[in-house]
## 1
Amino acid sequence: MSFDPVITLFSCHYTSQQSCAAEGKELEQLGFPSSINLVRVPCTGKLQITTLLKAFEDGADGVYVVGCPEDGCHNVKGSIRAAKRVAAVRAALEELGVEGERVQMYHLPRGLHPEFVAKGKEMDARIRDLGPSPFSN
Amino acid sequence: MIVAERKPMAEIVEMVQDCKKILVLACRGCVTVCSAGGEREAEILSSLIRLGMKKAGKSIEITTGSLVRQCDREYIDEIDQWDGQYDAVVSTACGVGVNFISNLRKDTMVYPALNTTFFGGSAEQGEWTEQCAGCGDCVLHLTGGLCPVARCAKSLMNGPCGGSVDGKCEIHRDVECIWQSIHDRLASFDRSAQMEVIAPIRDWSTAGHGGPRKVVRDDLTV
């Protein structure tokens, strides 16, 4: 099924610096999927489960979080906390009979790295495969 | 504290299938401390119910509120502030709260969002363990402060069974044999002779086997 997904990305301030490069144009030039709405947060450890769920309530087909490497978080355990909350949301989605893969956590290096774009493409492809959110009825 | 955990979402969504509007009611008592039913969990639950209903092609209006406790008459009265805003209450309190609302609000349907599990404590962050069975006839003064009723898999009263190995219970290697721990603790106080005293046959009527229990303090009643 072909459709235009809506994906919400919550990214650590430090990990998403591409979004600021070249006056914000670099991500687009690197092929970052236009389906992804980037929300920068000071630290992914600040994200609450309700924040991730609200993204689904607001119409996201997929939600993902990009935080620092587990052993390199600026706030020590922020991205580890985020991963735990992403796992909790995934479990809750599965309880509701929804594919857990619609929510993901990635730990990526801070700064300008190609993995940030690669994971965006990966998420875009995954959600396109899964199809529209079952919550979009 | 009373420890509880959220029921499976499918079960909760099924309960509210026919509701147009509900009140998700948090309890700021024990279930807040064990992160099962406080205000944050009620917000999460509200979001999950909305998503579950959306998936079923239905919509639901949810008001989220909280009470200091759901096990006292005077706090239950505060539910009146949401009058007319719900078809049913989904309580994130322990089973006591659900019962109390049902007792005191004859016209209000109340659904439990939690499975109430045990009396316990936080062993470490994010982990709770059972410590007390509320059996109504405490023997902790005889057992070094460690409860064989709640913490022995068989609730034995006269030392370990034959399944105790290396201080662990036969039901699982992660479970301590509480009778080994009782022995070690009594020995550390030079009271291991207490282990030789045969416990009498226990009267379980105080543990609920004699029907629902009640405590009355005449000095507190008016």
## 2
Amino acid sequence: MGSWIIGVVLVLLVIIVIAKLVRIVPQGYEWTVETFGRYTRTLSPGLHFLVPFYQAVGARMNMMEQVLDVPSQDVITKDNAVVRVDGVVFYQVLDAAKAAYEVANLEQASLALVMTNIRTVLGSMDLDESLSKRDAINAQLLRVVDEATHPWGVKVNRIEIKDIAPPRDLIDSMARQMKAEREKRANILEAEGFKQAAILKADGEKQSAILAAEGKKEAAFREAEARIRLAEAEAEATRMVSDAIASGNINALNYFVANKYVEALKEIAHSPNQKMLLLPMEATGVIGSLAGIAELAKEAMSQQGSAKIVPPPR
Amino acid sequence: MSLLSAHHLWWLLALLLIGLEVALPGYFLLWIGIGAAATGMLAWLVPDLSLLGQAIAFAVLAFLACAVYAWMLRPKLRRTESTGERLNRRGAQMVGRRYVLIEPIVNGRGKARVGDGEWLVNGPDLPLGATVEVVGVDGNTLQVRPAA
């Protein structure tokens, strides 16, 4: 009976020991082997046999690229603005043994390094810069952290700042600043428009004044010319008349004058203005003209109407 | 033991274990099964072996099966692994590639631009901007030589 029990236990023990002896490392992982606690080699993915009781699996390192979330933290920029910053780190273990034994807690150590360096980098920039130069921040962080994690057999491939969030009131004033900026631009544009319009208007007025003056000048020239022409015509007419007189009789002229004189008197007499008082300027003039007519008549009688006014020479 | 003699029991166990090996991803039940089958053979050849003796024989045979596979058969069965060997080994994938130095190699240590990142390189001293060829990798450092 005792041998039965021992036999069964032995069989179970064999199963357990063999289960421990055969090690299968899954793809994406590497396991370190410790011989009595001392690191000896690294197991790559696949099937391995370890000598039981003598060799044991130490650390099981994930060799895949991993994402580490950097929790958000308050960072003070160069110009004393407090911003909340978070990010992600992509890293990959390239040397399982170093990552297992050179550093006690790889994730925590890397995270601490990234977080302190975010503070360092952002602390050397002012707010506007930190918001616009993500690439520069990422590159600088990557350089520092990659160098620092190198002894741990880790390659940091990428560090990205996810979000840089200034406090609410700062965002508000930034929005206000932008609005003011735009309004300023709009006002300037409007003023420029007005200025242009005024200039154009003044220019138009100037042009029209010039044109009007030119028209006037032209008209005056023409008018003067017309007057000259008129004077010339009058002179000509006068000359003709005087020629006619010179070649004819003075009395004919007298007749005309007397005729006009009488006609003018008649006109005045017919004037609707009742206050009009007719006062012959000089009765002698009228009488003289009458005498002139009488003389003319007399002459006509004597010459039997043979007297003719010679037409003026053309 | 009239109906089922000891060796039948061992063979039954062997079949059971080999069957389980197919069903369960464990890869260790196979040798125990082989050990059980061998013990069954032994019990069949030596009928008056005690149960304890059979158990000891089973243990020895199972370990022997394991050892024979692990240290004698497996190295011969192993082929040169191709892509699998390079999975999760970023450095190994870079051997033979050429990169440009973004920091001169001084005292055997410099930096090369790889993709949009940087890698530390070991090699002969070279000026900034020189092209290097990766000949090997050591953890997260590339072994380089000047590209011909």
